[in-house]
Specification:
The chain is α+β, with helices and mostly antiparallel strands. It has helices at 26-30, 59-70; strands at 45-47, 54-56, 78-80. Bound molecules: zinc ion (ZN).
């Protein structure tokens, strides 16, 4: 069904230096490596705690990581377009 509102991510995300892609061939690019997706097809949950910025496919996975790696069950500092 149609989304009730447009997906949203923060307009500013942390940046890192870009690295040149030396592996992708012109054939792969022309075959269509990239496509438009949406929150239902591609859930995105980013741990924004302590400049972590690891990406997870579900909130459950993010919270498992957070408990293990940050020793926290805090549900703040999550960047997502799914909620
Ligand atoms: Zn984290």
């Amino acid at each position: 069904m149609a989304q009730s509102s447009h997906p949203k991510l923060p307009s500013v995300l942390p940046s890192i230096p870009a690295i040149q892609d030396v592996e992708t061939t012109p054939e792969q690019v022309n075959a269509g490596l990239a496509r438009v997706t949406n929150p239902t097809e591609t859930p995105i949950y980013i741990c924004a705690m302590q400049s972590c910025y690891r990406l997870f496919p579900s909130k459950e996975r993010l919270m498992q990581h957070r408990k293990r790696d940050h020793d926290s069950e805090d549900e703040e500092d999550i960047i997502t377009w799914n909620e």
